Amino acid sequence: MKAKLLIFLLLCSITFSLNSQEELELQAKEYYDLLILWKSYPDMPGLSELLSAAESRLGINQVKIDQYCINQSQLLYEDALKIWQLETKTEIQVLQAMDLVTESICLNPDNIPAIKLKDVMLFEKGGNRPIIMSSGLRGLYERAMKEYMDGDLYKSFSTIRELSNNEAIENNPDFIKLKALVYKKYYDSLKGF
Questions:
Q1: For residue 79, what pLDDT is reported?
Q2: How many angstroms separate the Cα of 69 from the Cα of each of 20, 47, 53, 63, 177?
Q3: Own/partner pairs for 50-57, CB < 8 Å, 24+ apart?
Q4: How far is Cα 80 from Cα 85, in angstroms, rounded to an integer?
Q5: What's the rounded Cα separation, in Å, for the pair 58 and 79?
């Protein structure tokens, strides 16, 4: 029963919209907890599907994007843009536009105009301006993070080195933190030799 309650709480925390970097970090931590739970109870009904859904949501496993998703993503982006460009907006309209653009990005992580619009929205709304990654870079970043969390330090180090060659991610604060963690553990592991 305790495990089922934990799964429910993890599902709730993983499925909310990503509106800030703090929420992304929280979801990554919750995903890690879900992964540990799955390793402890691999036969629990529905847990594997929940883990797959969480990995898709976080960009660890990229779902193939079909033309329908691309079209829907574009329509949602256009709706969000119309709301965002209104002369005066209520707080509800701002939240609605944010939800639409977030849904647009979920359907098609390569929708660059939607990514840029969300970046502008977050900046104008206040707070830290995130550096939003394309789905390809996000996939590599998430793979490096998963490798690190799974304890596969050498694969994670290799993936981080691959990412380090890309200027689009080198100033991303999350990447910088992960790179520092991986490099520190990697070089600490070499001290024993």
A1: 94
A2: 24, 26, 17, 11, 33
A3: 50/7, 50/10, 50/11, 53/14, 54/10, 54/11, 54/14, 54/27, 54/30, 55/31, 57/14, 57/15, 57/27, 57/106
A4: 9
A5: 24
Q: Which residues contact 129 (CB under 8 A, 6 or more apart)?
A: 119, 122, 123
CA distances from 99 to 25, 56, 114, 129 (A): 19, 18, 11, 17
Report yes or no: 129 and 123 within 8 Å, Cβ to Cβ.
Answer: yes
| Of residues 56, 57, 48, the one with CA closest to residue 15 | 57
- Residue extents of the structural domains in the chain: 2-58, 67-125, 135-190
Question: What SS3 state is found at 107?
Answer: helix
190: tokens are 């070499």
Q: What one-character DSSP code corresponds to residue 165?
A: T
DSSP 170: T
- Are the beta carbons of 24 and 47 closer than 8 angstroms? no
Q: Tell me the per-residue pLDDT of 122-149, one tens digit each, with 9 for 90 and over.
A: 777 765 545 566 777 788 888 888 888 8
**What pLDDT, in 10s, does the model give residues 152-189?**
888 888 888 888 877 767 767 778 888 888 888 777 77
